[in-house]
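To: structure subgroup
Subject: Chain for Friday's discussion

All,

I'm putting the inputs and outputs inline so they're searchable in the archive.
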Amino acid sequence: MKDLRFHDLRHEATSRLFENTDLDFMEVKGITGHKSLQMLSRYSHLRAHKLADRLAGGKR
């Protein structure tokens, strides 16, 4: 793949950790090595249906 960088893989992996696990921000931060929660928050794309499920008491 042309123009694929380490950052692209890191972004994808971080996004999947938020999407497919029940890890919280601090746990994901420890895995990915992000220095601030502000930078890490760029990867936590909220999905409306998942947020609605959580507000209704559902698990991540």
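Points worth raising on Friday:
The CA atoms of residues 13 and 20 lie 10 Å apart.
The chain has four helices and no strands.

D.
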